[in-house]
Amino acid sequence: MALQDGLTERQLRHPAVVRLSRDTYLPRALAGETSARLAAVLLTAPPGAVLSHATAADLWGIAIPLQAEGGARVHLTVPMGSRAESRRDRSVHRTQLPDGDTTRRGGMPVTTPARTWRDLAAVLRPSALLAVSDQVLARWCSRGDLEQQLACRPTGRGSARARAVLPVADPRAESPMESVLRWLVHEAGLPPPELQYVVRDAHGRTTARADLAWPDRRLLVEFDGDVHRQRDVFVNDLRRQNRLVAAGWTVLRFTSADVLGRPDDVIAEIRRALR
Question: Half-sphere exposure (CA, 13 Å, Cβ side) for 231?
Answer without folding.
Answer: 0
